[in-house]
## 1
Amino acid sequence: MSRAEKVAVPKTELPQNVAIYAHGLDFTYNPKSPFAKQALCNVDVTIEKGEFVAIVGHTGSGKTTFVQHLNALIRVQKGELTVLGHDLSVRKPDLKALRRQVGMVFQYPEYQLFADTVLDDVCFGLKNFGIEKDKREQMARDALELVGLDFDSVKAKSPFDLSGGEKRRVALAGVLAMKPQILVMDEPTAGLDPRGKEEILSLVSQLNREENITVIMVSHDMNEVFENAKRVLVFRDGRLDYDLPPRELFRKEEEIASMNLEVPSMAMFLNELERSGFAIEDDCLTVEEVFQAVLRLKEARDA
Ligand SMILES: Nc1ncnc2c1ncn2[C@@H]1O[C@H](COP(=O)(O)OP(=O)(O)OP(=O)(O)O)[C@@H](O)[C@H]1O
Ligand SMILES: [Mg+2]
């Protein structure tokens, strides 16, 4: 089915494997003022633990507004939202527990960094949760090394003296140090060079595969969405318009173009192959996977 499915599940019956459940979620900035702007409209979505979900859509379509609900940076105005069992539509959700479990890397990571040193920045959340000094330094070291930074050479630096890519890694380390169950990233690779992008994405994919961390990634880069996400949510004017696996979504070349989104180059190639009568399995998305699939077709033809 092409349109995002709308199935209402009463909150009390949410199965254990549900990470995020939104039903009828609406949000308006500056309500009841002449500047009122509805940014989310009747969003229904259920995401299971361990999924890797990309969120795409034209600028201003509501992506950031939606993901900022997930750790209650934006509070629910209307509708239902449950994240890891926390009902966020109540007046006083347990924000401390929620924010430990849901790590958020902001759209502009430089806004996320504020301490005098990288070490203090990465340790900030751990300190808030009462983890003692030696233990938190060890956890900060592990997290910084996980994101590819050398602990001893960056720990005493000011986060503001780092490059854009390094800042992003420090922001990610601060979040990963908390060992979140859900990792929400708002355009984590924007402005990075291809190698920086690749390193962040392969780390996040690895965390998703090996640690079963649920990943929610907002992105404008359809190629990275195609290669990494297993499911893509498309927002348009605050509505969730499509909720599909990447291969299925990017077969809809005309609809994608009408939303001012790009069709990933690999999807274009696969669509072209398909139109010429070569059927490639839907789970082949990377160059290597498609190459192997083409080889299999060749072997079958030669046999
Ligand atoms: N703080 C705010 N006050 C008023 N309106 C806002 C605010 N933040 C966002 N909006 C408006 O809400 C709508 C959704 O914005 P949002 O930031 O969620 O979009 P987005 O999909 O993340 O866009 P982008 O791709 O540019 O990051 C837009 O029309 C935007 O102008
Ligand atoms: Mg945004």
## 2
Amino acid sequence: MSNPPHSPHYADQAISCTVSVLENLQIARNTYRLRFESPQMSRRFLPGQFLMLRLAGLQDPLLGRPLALYDTVCKDDGTPRGIDVVYLVMGKMTSLLAEASPGDKLSVWGPLGNGFYPQPVNHLIMVAGGVGYTPFPAVAREHLGSRQYGQPARTTPGASRVSMCYGARSAEFLAGIENFSEIGVELHLATDNGSRGHHGLVTDVLEQVLEQSDSDSRRILCCGPEPMMKRVAEIAEQQQIDCDVSLETPMACGIGICFSCVARVREEADGWDYKRTCVDGPVFDARQIRW
Ligand SMILES: Cc1cc2nc3c(=O)[nH]c(=O)nc-3n(C[C@H](O)[C@H](O)[C@H](O)COP(=O)(O)OP(=O)(O)OC[C@H]3O[C@@H](n4cnc5c(N)ncnc54)[C@H](O)[C@@H]3O)c2cc1C
Ligand code: FES
């Protein structure tokens, strides 16, 4: 079963606020984990949703940039009090963000988008390429029952086994792998240069994991570069496994106004239409995407 049909998510749970940086730690090459406090926003977030972020008071860059929820930050009693995002330094905004210090102000609006919809499944397999791994700690925690998300907190059917296939250019770009092990995720790594894990593509690792999985109830969730997601979608189709992909199309507004984020999505009767990734996604059934 795939995600239920849904109406667009017009930022109906989103709040917009100015927050202070609590931490901005380098966790891998060119990769930082940024933490800010916002009890109100963190209570609402679901795994796979994203926020838009810009540096408060700066005119350049003017537009916010989308970043996925890495995870909520909770008090000792489990109440969400803040948000972690993880970003790779790519261009203008993330280069400036890497210089942010505790106390610096950010403008954020979220949660946005649909997120990954939890389904009853025995073996959940997450596949990530590069910084596409960022939505998955929260997805894993939710499926393994160690954290609840949303307001009211949603209960999920859970999974008895959660695997993560994670590929990066080289070992120094692999970020947050200790988090996955702590959460109880089976980790399968791949690097382009063979410096850690399988020497080659993360899709090779996915095929190995599927060969060794005898469950008849499996589901694949995927996020990363488009060619990787396309190949994962093909593998899932060949093996008749439901697969959801989280698209990383560039976005300008994040709330459905500008149409800068469209993807070609199949419709019934063999047609297709442009859908806005920010409000109709970013998570889509892989069979819907015209790559
Ligand atoms: C829903 C969603 C969630 C995301 N989550 C994360 C996250 O958790 N962590 C993270 O590091 N990034 C994430 N991204 C990607 C991030 O928003 C972009 O990389 C962002 O443009 C970086 O801003 P910048 O100003 O530093 O770079 P820019 O100046 O905007 O761009 C630098 C270069 O990257 C290219 N680029 C911009 N956006 C993309 C993109 N989406 N895909 C491929 N190339 C792109 C540009 O063409 C340019 O060459 C996410 C994107 C989406 C849509
Ligand atoms: S980013 Fe503006 S419509 Fe999606």
